[in-house]
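Second attempt. The first submission of Zinc ribbon domain-containing protein had a stray character pasted in from the spreadsheet, which I only caught after the job came back as garbage. Lesson logged: always re-copy from the clean sequence file. Corrected sequence (324 aa) follows.
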Amino acid sequence: MPAATAPTVPTPEVTAAADAADADAMNARARSLLVPVADPEARPTPPPSVSPVLPGRPVADRPQVRAPGPQQGDENGVPCPWCSTPNRPDRHYCTRCAMPMTRTEDSSARHRPWWRRVLDFRNRETPWAGDRPRLRRTFDRILTWVVAAAVLSLLIWVGVSAPGWVQATRDHFAKRAPVAPDQFAASRSYPGHKPDLLFDKVNNTWWGPGVTQSGEGQWIEARFAEPTRLLDLIITPGTSTRADQLSQSALPHRIKVTITTKDGRTTTRNLTLDQSAGGQRRAFRVGEVTKVRFTLESAYGASASKQVAIAEIEFFGRSSANSS
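This time the job returned cleanly.
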């Protein structure tokens, strides 16, 4: 039977070495947990709250301004006509306001109107004491007269033009009413299409000059027995207002309108029409008209087999309801 083995006992050298290793590990761990702290620095010395300055010169007190008072012995003196301050009898100007002691009749007179003060160059108002009068130069006077002339011209122009402006305003807001001429005339007419068909208020009848191409130089005229104010004008080109019938005739393009007033003077206007069907309205503000002539100058679609045709010409004036 084998013999029993004795238990192993650690040697003292091994235990001491292990303790030394554990102590080194603990020291290393403690060093790793420490936070390095810098050495405290010395704080700078703060600057003084009041910096040193050089001694300055003493500043003298400002003088006090006092109002002038009455002189000795002036309590019973002559009062100033401007400020009522007593003055010595031998003074010619006041000790307080420096105005003359003698007040003339002109200075106490009633205030003159502005136009007399402007146009009176000799009797100018004397400036007060301490006021510097304005220097009057030649250029200033010329500029003043130029401005005055411009203002006067503007007023005259406004006065002359005002009636026209009033009439134009009334015409703009006036209600329109048709105006029929009393007589008609034409340079020539196509058979069966006389000039009175232009003013019959029917748009399926027409007038033609009876010549082919543009009919340049041919005219038609409307006459009024009494002078009439005309505001608008409507011209219907072609033989009717239907668009499918525009190609049946040439259409007027440019028309010269000659207007004759009751005093015999004539005015010329140029009308340009569009190549479209239906009536074409144009502004025609003329007063005291006795005769209007329309002269053809050019046409749309003119050819050797077509003549210019105009279906209707209508005049419009102010309605009698505007005066009520």
